[in-house]
Amino acid sequence: MKTRDILYRAALLIATVIWGSAFVVMKNTVDDVPTAWLLTARFWGATVVLSCVFFKKLKKINFDYIKKGAVVGLMLFLAYYVQTVGLIYTTPGKNAFLTAVYCVLVPFFGWAVTKEKPDRNNIIAAFACIIGIGFVSLTEQLTMGLGDLLTLLCGVFYAIHILFLGNFTKERDPILLTIIQFFFVGCFSFAAALFTEAPPAMPLPASSWLGLGYLCVFSTAIALLLQTVGQKGTPASAASILLSLEAVFGVIFSVIFYHEPVTARMYIGFALIFAAVLISELKPIKKKN
Known about the structure:
The protein is an all-alpha fold. The chain contains eleven helices and no strands. Helix 6 runs antiparallel to helix 11. The relative contact order is 0.23.
C-alpha cells in the first residue's frame, strides 16, 4: 500500500476517533445545554468554520444548492435531534453502537429508490443486527428503553440522509453542499429551540463551553473535512468499514471517561452489531477466469 493511501485511511480513522469521543462530550454538555440549542450552536459554529476555510466556494451558491442543502439538512437535523435526545436516556456506548445500524439499513432503503435488491450479505447482516440490538437494548422483561428506541430512530434518519446526500453530491461540490447543509441544520435546530425549549441557564460552566467548542470545531468541521479528504482516495467499501469504527471508539471513550458498565450480554450485542456492519460492507471478490 502506498504512503498516500495510508494517509487517506489515517484521515478516516482520525475522524472516527473524534466522532467516537463526541458521544461522551455530548452526554456531558446536554446536561447544561438543551438539545436543540446545543445543535444550533454546533452546526452554526461549524458553518462559520467551514465558510472561513472555503470562503471562495461560497460564490457558487445558487438556488439548486440551497434547495438540496435544505433537504439533506432537514434529514440530518432529525437524525441528530433524536440521537441527542436519546442520549439523555441511555449511555454513550449504547448510543454509539445503536446509531451504527444505519450502515445495515442503507441497502434496504436504497432498494426503494434504485430498485437494486439487497444481496445475501445485506440480509445476513440485517438478521445479525436485529439480534445484536436485542442483546444491547432489551431488558429481562423484553422491553426497550426510550433512549435506545430514539437512537434506533436516529439510525433510520441517518440512512435516509446518506441516500439523499449520495444522490445530491454526484454533480455538485460536496464541501459547498455540506456548508449549506450545516447552515440549515442550525436553522431547523434554532426553530425547534424557540418553540420547544427554554434557553440554557447562563452563565454556562466552563466545561459546557469547552464541549460546545469541541463539537463545533472538531466533531463537525474538522472530522467532516477529514472524512471528505479520506474518502477521496479510499474505496467506498473500505471507507465504510473504517467509518463504522466510530461505534467502537464510542464505547471505548464511554467506558474510560463516562465509566459506563458493560455487561457480558452487551458485549455480545456490540459484537453482533459490529459484525453486521462488516458483513453488510464487505463484498465477496469475484475471481477472474
